[in-house]
């Protein structure tokens, strides 16, 4: 099984704060640690914890932050295709409050691969699935060559501009930038399913046949932070869909992988290895 992740991998500095600082405050970040992350990066590392062959299409800057990200992704077994950008790499400052909630400050614009980059885009046609978090409509069209295209709901504007139809759009029902309905897409671009998570309430799968709910995991670790939970879920969901698991069951099976990171401050320390999953119908687009 082969899966591509097309999008951003940012340099993260994460730590605890007693509270999100107010205007004029000085906040001290406690227990800071650095690692690659962002919406694409967290999903990528979740996918590498599997038996699948993983391809990463991304872009990297020209500074020490980029070098650290490059080194960390190179330690995985993934095939990494990174476009070079002559600018500082994107950094994120993530503050975790005592309730586990995260607040993020993004320093600079996320660096994404674009179709004009000299990367082996033709390899996407050999992928069972592609998970897309980048912003270039032409790159979305390239990712559509994969058997299944899963895209973050945050990229709905770029998806609409691309004219491409995704198979699954995944996001958070409580994030206004991600909450979407089938009616938000023209008929020719309507995805087979929109997956919207709701944290401890589970989530829902929206299709032309109606709305079906999936439960939250029975066990939800505590003591860590929420950073990376949704992106770990998205990575696991893409894996199970690529393996031929129907979308509602894939959501249920992906849930524990998102919940697992709630037990640690750094999500990459807590991600679970994905189940060895026999492909049910690897040639089908039926979700």
Task: Write up what this structure looks like.
The protein is built from 7 helices and 13 strands. Helices cover 24% and strands 26% of the residues. The longest helix has 14 residues, at 229-242. Strand 9, helix 4 and strand 10 form a beta-alpha-beta unit. The strands form 2 sheets. A 9-stranded mixed β-sheet has the order 5-4-1-8-9-10-11-12-13, sandwiched between helices. Strands 3-2-6-7 form a 4-stranded mixed β-sheet. The protein has a single domain, classed as 3-Layer(aba) Sandwich (UDP-N-acetylmuramoyl-L-alanine:D-glutamate ligase), CATH 3.40.1190.20. It has helices spanning 38-48, 64-74, 137-143, 156-162, 229-242, 247-260, 267-270; strands at residues 2-6, 10-16, 30-37, 53-60, 79-84, 91-96, 102-107, 129-132, 149-152, 168-172, 193-197, 203-207, 210-214. It has 287 residues and is of the alpha/beta class.
């Amino acid at each position: 099984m082969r899966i591509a992740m097309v999008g951003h991998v940012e340099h993260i500095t994460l730590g605890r704060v007693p509270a999100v600082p107010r205007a004029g405050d000085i906040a001290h970040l406690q227990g800071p640690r650095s690692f690659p992350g962002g919406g694409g990066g967290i999903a990528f590392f979740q996918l590498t914890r599997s038996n699948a062959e993983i391809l990463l299409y991304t872009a990297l800057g020209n500074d020490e932050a980029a070098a650290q990200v490059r080194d960390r992704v190179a330690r995985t077994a993934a095939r990494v295709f990174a476009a070079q950008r002559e600018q500082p790499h994107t950094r994120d400052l993530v503050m975790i409050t005592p309730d586990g909630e995260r607040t993020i400050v993004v320093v600079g614009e996320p660096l994404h691969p674009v179709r004009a980059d000299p990367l082996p885009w033709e390899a996407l046609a050999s992928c069972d699935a592609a998970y897309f978090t980048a912003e270039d409509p032409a790159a979305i069209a390239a990712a559509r060559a994969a058997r299944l295209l899963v895209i973050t709901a945050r990229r709905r504007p770029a998806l609409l501009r691309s004219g491409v139809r995704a198979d699954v759009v995944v996001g958070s029902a409580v994030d206004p930038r991600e909450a979407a309905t089938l009616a938000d897409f023209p008929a020719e671009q309507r995805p087979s399913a929109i997956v919207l998570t709701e944290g401890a309430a589970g989530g829902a799968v929206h299709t032309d046949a109606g709305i079906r709910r999936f439960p939250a995991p029975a066990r939800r670790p505590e003591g860590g932070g929420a950073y990376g939970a949704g992106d770990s879920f998205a990575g696991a969901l893409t894996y199970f869909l690529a393996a031929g698991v129907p979308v509602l069951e894939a959501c249920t099976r992906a849930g524990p992988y998102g919940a697992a990171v709630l037990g640690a401050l750094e999500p990459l320390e807590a991600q679970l290895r994905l189940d060895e999953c026999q492909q049910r119908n690897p040639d089908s687009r039926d979700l």
